[in-house]
C-alpha cells in the first residue's frame, strides 16, 4: 500500500490488479468457517447438484472480500468511506479471479477530498462476476 495524494490521482487511473489463486474447495471451506456462511451450495456437492449446479459455487461475499483486499492494497482501510457491490455472475470452482478498479470521479465531501472508484471481479475468461464501487478519502 502506498500513500496517495489527491492532486496526483486522476480520473481514469487504475488500481494495481489483484489476481488470486483459482477457487478450490479448501478456500470455500475456510471462508465458510471464517464467515459463518455454511450454505450447502458452497460446500456440499450433492446439494449443489440437486440445485442445478455442476458443483459447489463460491460465496458472493468471498468475492466482495477480495475486492476489499484490492482496496486495502491501494489505501489504508481507514480511508474507506463507502463500499458496495452487486453480484452479476456465479464464481465456479477453478475460476481464477482478478480484481480491478478505476478512478471515475474526484470530489470533496464533509471537508475531505475523495475519489470514487469502480471495482470488479472477473474470471479468467474476462467475465465480470461482481461489480461495485467505493469512495476513498485521500
TrEMBL record:
Q: Which InterPro entries match?
A: HotDog_dom_sf, MaoC-like_dom
Q: Domain MaoC-like spans what residues?
A: 21-118
Q: What is this protein called?
A: MaoC-like domain-containing protein
Q: What organism does the UniProt record list as the source?
A: Paraburkholderia saeva
Amino acid at each position: 500500500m502506498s500513500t496517495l495524494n489527491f492532486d496526483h490521482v486522476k480520473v481514469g487511473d487504475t488500481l494495481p490488479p489483484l489476481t488470486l489463486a483459482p477457487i478450490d474447495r479448501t478456500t470455500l471451506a475456510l471462508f465458510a468457517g471464517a464467515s459463518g456462511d455454511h450454505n450447502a451450495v458452497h460446500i456440499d456437492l450433492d446439494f449443489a447438484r440437486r440445485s442445478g449446479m455442476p458443483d459447489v459455487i463460491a460465496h458472493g461475499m468471498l468475492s466482495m472480500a477480495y475486492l476489499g483486499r484490492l482496496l486495502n492494497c491501494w489505501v489504508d482501510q481507514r480511508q474507506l468511506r463507502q463500499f458496495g457491490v452487486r453480484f452479476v455472475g456465479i464464481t465456479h470452482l477453478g475460476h481464477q479471479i482478478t480484481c480491478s478498479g478505476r478512478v471515475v470521479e474526484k470530489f470533496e465531501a464533509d471537508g475531505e477530498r475523495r475519489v470514487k472508484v469502480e471495482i470488479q471481479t472477473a474470471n479468467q475468461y474476462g467475465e465480470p462476476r461482481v461489480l461495485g464501487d467505493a469512495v476513498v478519502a485521500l
